[in-house]
Amino acid sequence: MTGKLYGIGVGPGDPELLTLKALRLIKESDVIAVPGKIPQETVAYKIVEGIYPELWKKELLGIHMPMTKDAKVLKESREEGVRRLCGKLEEGKVIAFLTLGDPTIYSTYSYLHMGVKKMGYSVEIVSGVPSFCAAAARMNSGIAEGAQQLHIIPASYETKMALELPGTKILMKAGQRISDIKEQLKGCAAEICMVENCGMDGEHIYHGIEQMPETAGYYTLVIVKERL
Fold it and tell me: How far apart, in whole angstroms, are the C-alpha atoms of residue 42 and residue 32?
C-alpha cells in the first residue's frame, strides 16, 4: 500500500496562522518534507515548530529547491525531489510537505506536486494563509473593494506593464527588484505599501515610496492599491 503526499501551506510566518487542518495532518504524517537541504534551518520548519515543538521527532526530508532561473538546474532538482518523495510513498508513508503561504500561489512545491501526481501517487493540497492577505491584515486595510480588480504579479520578472493594470496590484517576492519598482512607481496615484518579512522576525511595514528602502529581503511584497 502506497502513502499519500500533502502539500501544506503554513502561512507567511506567524505560527498562529497555521490552520487547524494543517496542524492535524502534520501531526498525523510519518514524514515532514521541506524545501531546503537542512530541514531544521528552513523557514517553513521553524514556523511549524513555533506551534508544534515536537516536530523534530518526525522523520525529516529536506528537498533542495535552488533559487535560480537556470532551466536545466531547475529540471534536475525537481526530478530529484519527485524521485525522493516517491521513494517514501512507496514505503507506504504519509508525507506532509511544508511550504510558505499557500501552495497554489507561486510555490516551488507545485512542480513536485504535479510530478508526484503524474507518477500515479495520491496527492492533496491544503491551503494556507497567503502572504498578501496577512500583509493587508497587518496594515489594517482591505486589498480590493467593490468592482476593483486584483492582480497578483511575480515581481522578480518584468513589472512595468503590469503596474498599468487597473485596480490593486500585489508584487510578490519584490526584494531583489525593489529599487527598480520604486522608480516605476514614481508619480503613481495609488496607495502604496511595502511589507518585509510579514509575521517573521524583522518585520517592517513601509507606507509610500518615500519610506521604502533601496534594498529589501527575499520575503518582501508591495501592495499598490488604486484610490477609489
Answer: 12
Q: Is the pLDDT of residue 1 over 80?
A: no
What are residue 36's DSSP bridge partners? none
Q: Taking a C-beta distance cutoff of 8 angstroms, is the pair 126, 38 a contact?
A: no
pTM check: above 0.85: yes
Cβ neighbour number for residue 64 with a 10 Å cutoff: 12
**Phi and psi, residue 152, nearest 5°:** -100, 120
Residues 125-157 have pLDDT tens digits of: 999 999 999 999 998 989 999 999 999 999 988
Q: What is the residue whose three cell numbers read 518615500?
A: 210
**What is the distance between the alpha carbons of residues 188 and 88, in angstroms, rounded to a whole number?**
51
- DSSP 3-state of 226: strand
List all residues 6 or more positions away from 105 whose beta carbon is below 8 Å from its beta carbon: 130, 152, 172
List for the chain the helix, strand, coil content (%; round to 5). 35, 25, 40
* Structure confidence by residue, pLDDT tens digits, 32-54: 999 999 999 999 999 999 999 99
